Amino acid sequence: MTDLLQQYGSDLAIVALDQLKLSFQATLTRVWAPCGQTPLVRVTPQRDHVHFYGALEVRAGRDAPQQTAQVTADFIRLLLLLFPHRHLLLLLDRAAWHSGPPIDQLLDENPRLELMYFPVACPDLNPQEHVWEQAREAISHNHTYRGFQTLVEDFDTFLNETPFETSFMQKYAPAILCEL
User: Fold this and answer.
1) CATH number of the domain encompassing residue 47
2) Secondary element (H or E) of residue 69
3) Which of 45, 51, 78, 113 lies at a C-alpha separation of 20 to 30 Å from 86?
């Protein structure tokens, strides 16, 4: 990463990529309640779900049907369009759909694209995971929806209208720079 930063400077976009499966099933988390009053959360038998792909530009802190290498490659192509004149360093976890022939082909076709993988079993390192956490806390944890589409729309609106601050570069840039 040191070479990339030295070579491209502000023309390098550093983006953390991740996916989320949003289910219509109620998701529960800790909640305060008066002593002796158990909070109630409505549970639906529906098993509807949708996958969200997210990418967080870690310097600025802003922010698919199935999770496959092809869908990931297509999403990365969209990111390349969003950063048309910049080199792109993607920070990825080691999910199976983050590698394979579609990703290899994409790398061969795009010399301005670099991939860097987070260590195994370290989701807290990925800033995009913190975005999902904030969205679930605000929209789906301990909340009930009568319709799945309303849940998806509220989740999407939250993701698109909320600025997400990250201290990723301050915390990890020196370690990343040493690794590369």
Assistant:
1) 3.30.420.10
2) helix 69-82
3) 51
Q: Is 43 exposed, middle or buried (0-12, 13-18, 19+ CB in 10 A)?
A: exposed
Number of folded domains in the chain? 1
Percent of the chain at pLDDT exceeding 90: 31
Gyration radius from the chain CA atoms: 18
C-alpha torsion sign, points 19, 25, 27, 32:
positive
In a domain, 35, yes or no: no
pTM: 0.69
* C-beta of residue 23 within 8 angstroms of C-beta of residue 48: yes
CA dist., res. 7 & res. 138, Å (int): 40
* Residue 14: predicted pLDDT: 83
pLDDT of residue 147: 87
Cβ contacts of 101 within 8 Å, gap of 6 or more: 69
The answer, yes or no, to whether residue 160 has pLDDT greater than 60, is yes
